[in-house]
Automatic annotation (TrEMBL):
Organism encoding this protein: Thermus parvatiensis
Molecular function via GO: 4 iron, 4 sulfur cluster binding; L-serine ammonia-lyase activity; metal ion binding
Pfam families recorded: ACT (PF01842), SDH_beta (PF03315)
Keyword tags: 4Fe-4S, Gluconeogenesis, Iron, Iron-sulfur, Lyase, Metal-binding
Any one Gene Ontology BP term: gluconeogenesis
Record's catalysed reaction(s): L-serine = pyruvate + NH4(+)
Protein name listed in UniProt: L-serine dehydratase
Length: 220
């Protein structure tokens, strides 16, 4: 355990869970979309819905989706900044079932993509994105992470692992999820360092790969 684990993250307050964590979740969602969003709908569950405004959750979520970090002073003005940048931000209270009380469902729409991302703020600024478009994932923001949407066909996981190994990238944690056999699937791969540009572009152009996102760490 380090010092920051005890005193919390460097951030614009007031809450590591409701402010820093919320900002990081939205920042991860922006990276997953892969482009600047035009519209974002935040569905606030549990404690996020009940006490979010008082803890700055709305401001933090808007800041994250604009690409800001929890220690950015502009966080306090994020809703005005979103309006100036032409990003529509909508908040709703939702019931998401048996999930962590600090959970948000984010529906992001860009020029090319639409993505539904669900994640929880776990306390002390720690976060976990656990669902992307209905696929189970594990994205903590603590290390570089590759998220790959692909056709569910034999050998894909092994081929991706081979590409990473050839670039001397070590896999720390891997999840694979599919909705039905032979349909679409998704991998989330936490790695020791980012994949280099050439193998990343090679991976993106494989016929059975639908899209790839290389997510940088957001825990700072």
């Amino acid at each position: 355990m380090g010092l920051l684990d005890m005193i919390g993250p460097v951030m614009v307050g007031p809450s590591s869970s409701h402010t820093a964590g919320a900002c990081r979740l939205a920042l991860l969602a922006r990276h997953l979309l892969g482009e600047k969003p035009k519209r974002v709908e935040f569905g606030l569950h549990g404690s996020f819905a009940k006490t979010g405004k008082g803890h700055g959750t709305h401001l933090a979520l808007a800041a994250g989706v604009l690409g800001l970090t929890p220690d950015d002073e502009r966080l306090k003005e994020s809703l005005s900044l979103a309006e100036r940048e032409g990003v529509e931000v909508v908040f709703k209270e939702v019931e998401l079932g048996d999930v962590h009380p600090n959970t948000v469902r984010m529906v992001l729409e860009g020029e090319k993509e639409r993505l539904v991302v669900m994640g929880s703020s776990l306390g002390g600024g720690l976060v976990r994105v656990f669902d992307v478009d209905g696929f189970e994932v594990r994205i903590t923001g603590s290390a570089p992470t590759l998220v790959i949407k692909n056709v569910d066909t034999p050998g894909v996981v092994a081929r991706v692992a081979r590409i990473l190994a050839d670039d001397e990238v070590n896999i720390a944690y891997l999840t694979v999820s599919r909705k039905k056999r032979g349909g679409e699937a998704m991998m989330s791969i936490e790695v020791d360092r980012p994949l280099s540009e050439v193998p990343l572009r090679y991976l993106e152009h494989l016929s059975y790969i639908l899209w790839v996102r290389q997510i940088p760490p957001v825990m700072g």
